[in-house]
Amino acid sequence: MNIILLGAPGAGKGTQASRISRRFGMPHISTGDIFRANIKNQTEIGLLAKSYIDKGQLVPDDVTCKIVENRLQEEDCKNGFLLDGFPRTVNQAEALERFTHIDVVVNIDIDFALLTARLCGRRVCKECGETYHVSTLNGKTNCEKCNGELHQRADDNPETVQKRLDVYLAQTAPLIKYYTEKGVIKNFTGTDEPPEVLFQQIEKVLEEYR
Prior knowledge:
Helix content is 48%, strand content 16%. The protein has helices at 13-24, 31-40, 44-53, 61-72, 90-96, 112-120, 134-137, 158-172, 174-181, 195-207; strands at residues 2-7, 28-30, 81-84, 104-109, 122-125, 131-133, 150-151, 185-189. The longest helix is centred in the last third of the chain and has 15 residues, at 158-172. It starts with a strand and ends with a helix.
């Protein structure tokens, strides 16, 4: 099955994506990872994307869509994939339909007040990238996995979080209406419960599409 994962920044998409990927044996495709891989390998499309990024500009939809299309043609996607971070706009969703089909859209809905508290309290390991929250650290400042130093990301502050949510509401939230009208969206509520609880709900629904 071909899946899109939607949700506001900090809704827990990354955590659920890795679980879905392992459970159903499909690649977790993050647009950020694709961009980095193409830029690192100096592909033609990657260098084009880099030319915009270096100028601080948004990569145009046609370039982004081509990078995604190329990735979905790789061998590991032939039996399904999980898209995370794409599409971000209705225009991208319409472009996506021209080169693949989507079976189900998993949307993680979360209260913005809870989301802001979650993001502003997030701490990330500088070495391995493991994520924690101050509410569970009990004053610890080092990663439990690799002992690396924990830090707060520059964009995990109330002002920047609000800007990210504003962008999400303006650009990405309309996708919920778009996919609802197509009858392929499944909505889930993200809470402070353990991620396993949410995953069990998602897993049960996705089993129906196998």
